[in-house]
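Repro:
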Amino acid sequence: MSIKILGLDHIQICVPIGKETLARQFYLDVLNFIEIEKPDVLKKNGGFWCTSGEITLHIGVEEMRETISKRHPAFIISNLEEVRGILKSKGVLIQEETSIPGIERFSCFDPFHNRIEFLEKI
């Protein structure tokens, strides 16, 4: 018997307790995710859920220290240069990434130092 992964249900990242407003500004206003209702039994945990296309992103809250990590979601997009320009115009820090054959990509960071990769398959 073997494990067969069928797909991705959601991505969860965390932000510091009490910073949901700033997280909403970044994920909803800058990245254009749409907030969706969390189940009532989970609302007491704080945070929020949002969606874009087929991606569901869970923003949790926890005690955090700023750290450097390789963890990140990678979002496929079709207009890499336009997205780069939009993010730069909103003051979002861009990090260039090593080229991968057939893929153009860069990363940015949310206000809590979560790395977010954007990629376009060429």
